[in-house]
Amino acid sequence: MVTAPSASDINRFLDQAIGLAAANVAAGGGPFGALVVTPDGRIHEGVNHVTRDNDPTAHAEVVAIRTAAAASATFDLSGAVLYASCEPCPLCLAAALWARIGQVHFAADRQAAAGAGFDDALFYEYFDGSRPDLMPVRQTAVPAADVPFQAWHDNPDRVEY
Ligand SMILES: [Zn+2]
Questions:
Q1: pLDDT tens digits for 35-64?
Q2: How far apart are CA 121 and CA 126, in angstroms?
Q3: Widest CA span of the chain, in angstroms?
Q4: Which residues sit opposite 36 in a β-bridge?
Q5: What's the pTM value of the predicted model, to 2 decimals?
Q6: Is 54 left (phi over 0), alpha (psi -120 to 50) or beta?
Q7: What is the rounded CA–CA span in Å between residue 161 and residue 142?
Q8: How far is the CA of 151 from the centre of ligand 1 (A)?
Q9: Residue 3 CB-density burial (10 A; 0-12 exposed, 13-18 middle, 19+ buried)
Q10: DSSP states of 90-129 as a string?
């Protein structure tokens, strides 16, 4: 459960994420910023580091999630809220789901991003099944496929997540 933030909080945090995004452009980075606000009220920032770090997964939202999780010393951000200067792409939505983020608010939408040269429409088509040619993914049945899961099951010290 996540308590819904007030409209003024949403506006304030989105403005802050937009400010981060604009500052990141001035610093030579991509035009994206994000915040994760954890239930304790702390604000964890992230900006796009794709080109700076040569990390195609370093989207602002992912960076903010990593920052929040590290600062909170937990991989479970239940009850946290993600604010993004732009609509989160499928990568960031999946990261937010794995982080158990409770809700997401964004300012600019995917069309605005496409207009700036950041078009992830193909990815949405891929996930809705209409463009399987974009990246074939195939299963191969190998005898050892279940070994890691068996090792996990047999490990009494495993940390469930
Ligand atoms: Zn993203």
A1: 999 999 999 999 999 999 999 999 999 999
A2: 9
A3: 56
A4: 44, 82
A5: 0.94
A6: left
A7: 26
A8: 33
A9: exposed
A10: HHHHHHHHHTT--EEEEEE-HHHHHHTT---HHHHHHHTT
Whether 45 is a known active-site residue: answer no
Rounded-to-integer distance, Cα 2 and Cα 100, Å: 11
> Angle at the Cα of 103 (from 32 to 41), degrees rounded to 5?
85
Rounded to the nearest whole angstrom, what is the distance from the C-alpha of residue 147 to the centroid of ligand 1?
32
Neighbours of 4 (CB within 10 A): 10
Cα 116 to averaged position of ligand 1 atoms, centre (Å): 15
Count Cβ atoms below 10 Å from residue 49 Cβ, excluding itself: 19
pLDDT band at 4 (very low <50, low <70, confident <90, very high): confident
What is the structure's pLDDT at 3?
A: 74
Token pair listed for 32: 């994206």
CA distance 104 to 60: 13
